[in-house]
Amino acid sequence: MELELAESAGFCFGVKRAITIIYNALDQNKKICTLGNIIHNQNMIDELQKKGTRVITSIDQSKDDETIVIRSHGVSQDIYNKLNLLKKNFLDGTCPFVAKIHKIVSGDFIDNKTNNIINKNNILVIIIGDKNHPEIKGIEGHCIYKFITIADSKNLEEYLKQNNIKNKYIKVVSQTTYNPEKFKLCVDILKNNLDNFEIFDTICSETKKRQSEAESMSKTKDLMIVVGDKNSSNTQKLFNVCNKNCKTIFIESSKDLEDLKNLNNIKKYKNIGVTAGASTPENIIEAVMDNLKNINNIDQDNNFDFDFDFEKELEKEFEKESKNSLFVGAQVKGTVIKLNKNEAQIDIGNQYDAYLPLSQITNNKNLKINDIIKIGDELDLKVIKINDRDGLITLSKKNIDKKNLYNKLKQAYDENLVVEGVVTKIRNDGVIVSVCDNLSNISGVEVYINRSQISENEDEFKNLLGQKVNFKITHIDLNKKRFKGSIKQIKNEIFWSKIKVGDKLKGRVNGLTDFGAFVDLDGEDGLIFIADLAWHKIKHASEVLKIGQIVDVTVKHLDFEKKIVALYYKTLETNPWEIIKNNYKDGDSIDVKIVSITPFGAFAQIIPGVEGLLHISEISDQYVKSVSDFVKVGQQISVKIKEINLDKKKILLSLKDPEKNTDI
Prior knowledge:
The chain is an alpha/beta fold. The chain is about 25% helix and about 30% strand.
């Protein structure tokens, strides 16, 4: 009997990345909870739970001291907004191939002919995949356009028959684990029915390779065994691909193989192939292979080394050779065996006496050594001095911590995480922030934050020295160990996650033009168009507002793509017709100002924004040949309100009362 394992069997890149994120976090003694099952494999989930992780189904179930890990399938934008709003610590395990789809469905659509951004209302996104799969749920949650999720080519044909979308611009993406052949069928249907569409091949390259390999193998085998969780979409697809070509068995572990009633019948198959889903751990695959070999005492020459890393193996060999030959700059592991006031004695496993000075542990002079480390702690350390004559070695923890902080900043940059630091220098163009270590102490790792990325408030900027601040990394150069950050980005993200139409806000006027006024909303720019500044017609915003004025405004419209906040300044209370309604009535005597004269009468301003008509017949009991014989533009006179018509927004005035016919 011949036995062959598919080259692509086992964890894919995205799953490996998600699992590695968890293991790294556990190594840093973080308490971990995953937002949903990290992958579709119960054995792996059980293994992680043994190591202290737990699964939650909503953010509200997390504890304050826990770090939330987003699973490889990804989540909706609303989840990210809530995590940031609640200031939750989280690590993003979203597969990069999935994250790419998120960017596609949340970005601008460009017309390839005109190179212009297409109107949002003219766009339809077609997502091809399983609507109930968590990956699809996440993609839908990032889509800022109208979208439809299609299961297969049959559903697509039905949708096109029932909906006329020929005038729409269509953008097509698919689930990363979708069957490439089925996706091609959908593409062919679109090509036959539509002209204006763009197709993004978002099927994971590893998925294509895995399914293609399974297709090829199953055509040459008597029996195929597919290993993986039966809830896993990509593993189910592997089974379907293989089952078309030969007898195929779907198992979750070697135990399932042993429990099969026809176990002995496997011996009759001369050529057996084994493949596994993208979320199947390597130890499970190994166990299945060992079990199959034992069925017929198969002695294979091939050693199935599923996790061989040449670089790591080389490092191991180097460590063995250099274990007893220490040098300045070497990295060692040591155990704290004694604590003194200003140093710790460390056992590094050889004849040297090794010491770790307090000055090489922390920059914080207020901390005592036992505030930071304890007897029995195992530490990663660096050799900074060797005294062969006295047999003494001086070690540093700060150097290793600095290296770890560089990695922390790289991770923060990659995963858009919040970093904590203390402002140690203020310059004209910005500030220098020293990153805080795990104990919230100031480290030697510095980040530059430009003034434009801090605050518009001058006093806030000047008072930052010595203050602890949260920021995000916006630029990174690991070779030169240079980092740039932004405090404003966090404010902006919180602002856009909370703001909604109708919100009442306070802002500071920082720009006036002939089309409106710009208002600073604590770092975000808002715009009041000139039509929304006043109820009466104005030519320039300076007629209503002044630079530096603090104003109460209402959110009128939000453009989340272009980050534009349109505001109202005029309110119902300042509507001049509301003032008329509440303060004036028929028969009232009022003072007005003549603003224009016509052959049939004169118009007089009652209050700014409201004019009344003084008809020629209401000017005098005598015959009036010319209106200008009785009133002049700019003249202020007393009149009576003859009639107020609020529905038509008209007011009729009268000057016939001789007692009211005098200049003021």
